[in-house]
Design brief:
This protein is mainly alpha-helical. It contains five helices and no strands.
Length: about 120
């Protein structure tokens, strides 16, 4: 399998920057990986925050758990969520993924040319 194909598959299917790491482009790989991980952190932190809000509401209601109550609390939490931060984080992940794939393809082609002569 060519370096181009391996690097593109790694970037597309594993994580943004994995293809660059395979091609030994550590600076680019690090930038993509750190940006993606920071974005994932923002998304997970917001999800945990919302889950804690739901758990506090359930606790205050004496743990009277019903599907309707959970749906209601989830809807309230989603409406109160900081969607700007999570939207920006999702956009950054998508951009990193696309840039990673494009750069892996371009860099892989260059590496294949050098390898073939």
């Amino acid at each position: 399998m060519s370096k181009t194909r391996k690097s593109v598959l790694l970037s597309a299917l594993v994580f943004p920057g994995a293809g660059q790491y395979y091609l030994k482009r550590y600076r680019t790989a690090g930038l993509l990986i750190i940006t993606s991980l920071a974005s994932v952190y923002v998304i997970v932190a917001e999800a945990v925050k919302q889950a804690r809000i739901i758990l506090k509401e359930l606790e205050s209601s004496g743990y009277a758990i019903s599907p309707e109550k959970i749906t209601e609390l989830s809807t309230q939490a989603a409406n109160n969520a900081n969607t700007t931060e999570t939207s920006v984080a999702w956009i950054l992940i998508i951009i990193c993924w696309l840039l990673g794939i494009i750069d892996a393809y371009r860099s892989g082609k260059q590496a294949d040319k050098k390898q073939s002569g």
